[in-house]
Design a protein that fits this description.
The complex is a heterodimer of chains A (about 425) and B (about 350). Chain A is of the alpha/beta class. Chain A is built from seven helices and 25 strands. Chain A is about 20% helix and about 35% strand. Chain B has two domains: about 5-165, Rossmann fold; about 230-355, no CATH class. In chain B, helix 1 packs across helix 6 and helix 3 packs across helix 4 (about 100-115). The chains are: A alpha/beta (about 425), B alpha/beta (about 350). The interface between A and B is large, with 56 and 38 residues.
């Protein structure tokens, strides 16, 4: 059994009469997309579709999720056959602020260095919902519109030969004898309810986790984001689709490590739930005979406790851990940066101080609901300067301190 | 011709050649040229000339800090504020090694000089020197050994760091041997976080040295003491971080970040009242505490229990400080000091209240 992912890069994305991919140019029939989205969800009152490209003087505001378009070209089951993806195209959904935690993407300037989505061609959906929806319904509408639009664009990849095909063979069920260390990926999903939800195989992650899961299923898009958490360390659907820990473990599998499997776990709210979850997750890691564990995270504050419980328990039971986290060390960098700690966490990757401030230059074009600007988490009432420049904490930029380790940003003591 | 750097060097009475402890209250004095370690510095760096040496008794500076700094400023101003092109370009202080008061002197002088004259100032200390915590945030402190054995190395690193600062070169705590300022700063690493994580894990599993990117803050965890065996004959004391003090706050315990604790008599008191006691604590609404201080430190109930014979006797003093924003290091120290007093007075049990 093997799963293949075919990457297709485009040179440009433009509006056209039809939605098709020709000679590396993706044409999008805007009207057809809007009709499609409105017809499948009566909660959408209005949808404005824009295209923005790397290097544009464009700022996208109140971004909720980012999704990579793609489609299954072979195989009926998740994690089998082949999926084609538009490597450098992304669906970006925006909407009115609901959770105070929507973020920014800058397509050029200083801010572009911090987000992976300044390098993708972005199809931006600015979605206005019908009146009187609950926040939950609002978010569900926007989330599903993003996923549907990604399928809509993904259809264009069906008859196209990918630039590269990455084969991912199934992990051997029986432990192979090897001197290479066995690494397990413990993948924490934010799942606290109240707009802090992640979906696995279409179900809320709060049900049925922790569990061991076939990594091929994850590569085939099993996880979608439903999270209104800080933009910087929210794992968007795109991040789950392109999880860098998974990809790196696959790439090095059999070379300097043995990729022994993935355990998915949640980040619950109650302490007793956290303790039970840690215990069960650790047992699953042992079932996979792990020597070492990579522990990624989503969010900050409360989830720090989960990460520390897992680290402590694993280390005490003889499994070495490297945990990935971002920091909230204050704007001046002098505060203690985590909400919890444990001596066993002696190997931590820092993906940056999210409180550090950045001055984003004025942009010619603003996309998304621009009136909500100063309500973004990481902004403050005087964030927007008269010349249109915007001073924010990195916290406000989508993916800036991604805790799957997508970015090169780090933090050190000086 | 190689560039020549003129500096002013600061030393305590001992290294400045004035004497030992008996000269520790020596007010600041300025001497032309190098003294003691300054001469070694000139030997190590032919392009560095010590224009003058400032010598100050370390007790004098630690005890009369404000006055001493004013006097030092007056001595240094003619040099650093001079119009001459030949004026000294930076300041070196110490090394102070593990000497606490000398460390305070070096830290305080460097901090003042860089602020007043906008020039680099560098000192060197043993990382556990108590002055490090106070000054590392604002001052470049080169990592030095415990004692003079490390003099040459420390002087060398101090001078190089001063020159680098003067030239506006990029500095790094590891490469340039200074104690980090405690500030977290972002930078772009060569590899992604995911890739660094896997590299680190493989190194850890291979038993190789790893450098965590985020050192855990370590919280002290106190093991609870075993239960008191015989409460009926135990001597009980009251201790609070809730700021209950006699009216008028005689020890002037700060409302936040307390610098002391107070010892107060309970003789003849059956309960606290708003006439006799108050709270000194900031950070919470004091109305209810001032209205009835027993709400924070329940002397009233303790006296009732004493009458019932629930415990042997009540210690005749109580101890109070303010928890609001008080550093862990200070709180730790008050705890030790109070415990010592309690043990000396034969106390076996304590009721510790906070807010």
């Amino acid at each position: 059994m093997i799963f293949e992912r075919g990457d297709i890069g485009v040179d440009n994305v433009r509006f056209g009469e039809q939605t098709t991919l020709e000679n590396k140019v993706l044409f999008l029939d805007k009207k057809a997309l809007i009709t499609f989205l409105l017809s499948r969800d009566t909660h959408i009152a209005k949808c404005v579709v824009s295209i923005t490209r790397p290097g544009d003087s464009t700022r996208i505001l109140c971004v909720k999720d980012v999704v990579q378009p793609g489609s299954k070209v072979r195989g009926d089951r998740l994690g089998e056959g082949r999926r084609h993806v538009l490597k450098n195209v992304a669906i970006v959904t925006c909407g009115k602020i609901v959770g105070y935690q929507e973020g920014i993407i800058d397509m050029s300037g200083e801010g572009a260095l911090y987000s992976p989505f300044s390098t993708t061609f972005n199809v931006v959906l600015d979605i206005v919902v019908v009146p009187d929806l609950t926040p939950r319904q609002h978010e569900e509408t926007v989330r599903k519109a993003g996923l549907a639009a990604a399928d809509f664009l993904g259809e264009t990849t069906q008859a196209v030969t990918p630039d590269t095909v990455h084969p991912f063979p199934a992990l051997e069920k029986e432990p192979i004898s090897s001197h290479l260390p066995r690494l397990v990926y413990l993948y924490m999903l934010l799942s606290q309810g109240l707009l802090h939800d992640t979906y696995v195989l279409g179900r809320n992650a709060r049900e049925g986790l922790p569990r061991i899961i076939d990594p091929l299923v994850l590569l085939d898009g099993a996880i979608t984001s439903g999270n209104c958490v800080s933009a910087c360390d929210k794992n968007t659907t795109w991040h789950h689709q392109n999880n860098p820990v998974l990809q790196e473990l696959w790439r090095r599998h059999g070379r300097d490590l043995l990729f022994a499997g993935v355990v998915l776990c949640t980040e619950p709210v109650r302490l007793s739930d956290k303790e039970t979850l840690a215990e069960t997750s650790i047992a699953l890691v042992h079932e996979l005979n792990a020597d070492g564990v990579i522990l990624s995270k989503e969010g900050f504050g409360n989830p720090d406790a989960d990460q520390m419980l897992l680290t402590r328990g694993l280390e005490q039971s003889g499994v070495k851990v490297v945990a990935i986290t971002d920091e909230f060390a204050g704007a001046d960098g002098f505060s203690q940066s985590l909400a919890d700690s444990t001596v066993e966490a002696d190997a931590v990757i820092s993906v940056g101080n999210a409180n550090e401030r950045i001055l984003l230059p004025p942009m010619e074009q603003l996309l998304g609901p621009i009136n909500d600007l100063s309500k973004l988490a990481g902004a403050w009432p005087h964030s927007l300067h008269e010349d249109g420049s915007l001073e924010v904490e990195l916290q406000a930029i989508i993916g800036a301190t991604n805790e799957l380790g997508m970015q090169r940003l780090s933090c050190r003591e000086v | 011709m190689e560039h020549r750097y003129r500096v002013i060097h600061c030393l305590n009475q001992f290294f400045g050649g004035m004497g030992g402890e008996e000269k520790a209250y020596q007010p600041p004095q300025l001497f032309e040229g190098a003294r003691g370690p300054g001469m070694l510095l000139e030997n190590l760096f032919p392009n560095i000339q010590v224009a003058a040496t400032l010598v100050v008794g370390d007790n004098y500076l630690a005890d009369k800090t404000e006055r001493a700094l004013r006097e030092i400023l007056a001595l240094l101003t003619p040099w650093y504020a001079a119009e001459s092109a030949d004026k000294p370009k930076f300041l070196l202080a110490g090394p102070a090694f593990n000497a606490g008061r000398y460390g305070i002197a070096c830290g305080a002088i460097c901090q003042m000089v860089q602020k007043e004259f906008s020039i680099p100032a560098v000192t060197a200390m043993y990382p556990q020197n108590p002055a490090v915590i106070e000054y590392k945030k604002n001052v470049f402190i080169v990592r030095a050994g415990k004692d003079v054995m490390d003099m040459e190395e420390a002087l060398r690193n101090m001078a190089v760091l001063g020159i680098k600062q003067l030239n506006g070169e990029e500095l790094d705590p590891d490469r340039d041997h200074y104690i980090p300022h405690g500030q977290r700063k972002n930078y772009f690493a060569e590899k992604t976080g995911a890739s660094r994580a896997i590299d680190m894990l493989l190194r850890k599993l291979a038993g190789k040295q790893i450098h965590t990117e985020c050192t855990m803050p370590l919280f002290d965890r106190v093991e609870p003491a075993p239960p008191v065996r015989d409460m009926a004959s135990a001597r009980l004391a009251l201790v609070t971080s809730g700021g209950i003090v006699p009216r008028g706050n005689p020890d002037r315990i700060e409302a936040a970040s307390a610098s002391r604790f107070g010892t107060y008599s309970l003789n003849g008191l059956s309960r606290f009242s708003s006439e006799t006691h108050q709270t000194a604590h900031g950070g919470y609404d004091p109305t209810f505490a001032n209205d009835d201080p027993n709400r924070i430190l329940p002397l009233d109930v303790v006296r009732e229990l004493e009458a019932e014979g629930a415990f042997g006797s009540l210690h005749d003093s109580y101890y109070a400080t303010v928890g609001n924003g008080t550093s862990v290091a200070n709180a730790d120290r008050y705890g030790f000091e109070i415990a010592k007093l309690l043990l000396a007075d034969g106390v076996q049990a304590v009721i510790l209240t906070s807010t």
